[in-house]
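yo, TfoX/Sxy family protein is done. seq:
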Amino acid sequence: MAYDLVLADEIRHALAGEDGLSEKRMFGGLSFLVGGNLAVAVRGDGLLVRVGADAADELARTTAASRAVMGARTMAGWLDVPADALGSEAELTAWVRRGVAWARTLAAR
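structure:
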C-alpha cells in the first residue's frame, strides 16, 4: 500500500525536536516511533494513531476517527483517522501529540 508522502512530511514537521524519534516502514505505510514505541503512522492518505484503549473508545465516539482494523482484528487502543479529519495543521498536530503522549507512557525500547 502506498502512503501519502506529503502527510509524512507534515508529521515530521509536527515531530520536529522530539527526543527518541525514529521512522520505520510497517503496517503498509510509514510509522513514527518515540522511544521505540509507535506513536503514529501514515497509512494510505490517513493516519494510524496509538492512544490506548480508554482514549480510543472515547475518541471513536467523539471524533471522525474509528477503531483501527488490521486483517480481521480490531486493534485495541489504535485509531484510523481519515484524511478529511486532518484538514488543518492544528488538527494533524493534535492527533500526532495524542500518539506521542501515549508512546511516552510506555517503557522505551
